[in-house]
Amino acid sequence: MIGDPGDVEDVENVEDVEDVEDTDGFGEDGYADPEAEAAAEAEADAEAEAEREGTPGWDGNPESSDSMRTFGAAARALRTHAGYSRKQFGNLVRFSEHTVASVENGRRLADQVYITRAEELTGNTGALREAVKHIGRRPGLASWFRRWARMEATAVTLYTYENRMVPGLLQTEAYAKAMYDDHLPPMDDDEIDAQWLARAERQLLLDERPHTEFGFILEEQVFVRRTGGAAVTRELIDHVLALAARRNVELLIMPLVSERHAGLAGPMQLLETPENRWFAYCEAQRGGHYTHDPKEISLLHQRYARLRSQALSARDSVGLLQRARGDL
């Protein structure tokens, strides 16, 4: 994943909603009583969502767009009007029951096969075929990262260790767009602009949260690589040094040569809420892992603390970056 946590809108890596049991609200003929079924499904959806919210380590459902939720509501209305439960409907369209639930809740894009079969079962009105043309996902931050971004907005402490790139909160536009140029699959100019605008909005945290403690431990290699070229790297280092001068920002550099290293398992972020609860977010190639499990949090705190002791001091880190800039 190129650029920063949550850059790529990746639907496939996100789990669907839990299976929802349609055991209530049906008559002897197996068809749904619309009001009873609606109440039962709403209750089941709420319970499933609450269960997922409380599951440590769950990565999160995609945050759908308004158009996806509207499409889902229409699909649900057509299904219930035709007299099918989710389970019955799933069997007839030959998709799982939880796929039907995901589409109707606006969490999953319906493919053409699903839409064709759904149209056949709901009277061939053409409503779904027309509605799907107007579905869009929100640009910018990937759906599975948005929850973390929302928590950042009120965090009192935010620690970041990064070994792949300069974190998004510290990036310049030129640096970010240099990475977008190498993104696969390729992005068009509008997509790149949307990604940068989302990132720039996140960066306002550094201006708007003067009482939040920001800590960054970065590998020296992210600067040595010279992503985008020498001019881009000079601008980036100047920008990072300016941010590091703020009293609520700590910047530490892990040197290229380091015999001891507690961060070999990869990047991590730790966040403390105003209620003094801690959360963590770790990212891999195709998705993110979000957790509030106390055992996981404790382990990551230990690793971050060890990294702080192994990295250069704040003064030495600034000196290293100044020398690196002079070598460009």
**Low-confidence region ranges:** 7-37, 42-63
Largest sheet, strands/sense/barrel: 6 strands, mixed
End-to-end CA span: 27 Å
Assembly state: single chain
| Number of E-state strands | 6
Q: What structural category do the secondary elements indicate?
A: alpha/beta
Give the secondary structure arrangement, pairings included.
Blueprint: H1 34-53, H2 66-82, H3 86-93, H4 97-104, H5 112-121, H6 127-131, H7 143-152, E1 157-162, H8 173-180, H9 189-203, H10 205-208, E2 213-219, H11 221-224, H12 230-244, E3 249-254, E4 268-272, E5 278-284, E6 287-291, H13 294-310, H14 314-326
Helix pairs in contact: 3-4, 12-14
Model description:
The structure is a single chain. The protein has 328 residues and is an alpha/beta fold. It is built from 14 helices and six strands. It has a six-stranded mixed β-sheet, with helices on both faces. Helix 3 packs across helix 4 and helix 12 packs antiparallel against helix 14. It is elongated and about 70 Å long. The two termini are 27 Å apart. About 16% of the residues have low confidence.
Compact summary:
With about 325 residues, the chain is α/β, with parallel strands linked by helices. It has helices at about 35-55, 65-80, 85-95, 95-105, 110-120, 125-130, 145-150, 175-180, 190-205, 205-210, 220-225, 230-245, 295-310, 315-325, and strands at about 155-160, 215-220, 250-255, 270, 280-285, 285-290.
What key attributes describe this structure?
single chain; 328 residues; alpha/beta; six-stranded mixed sheet; 14 helices; 6 strands; 11% strand
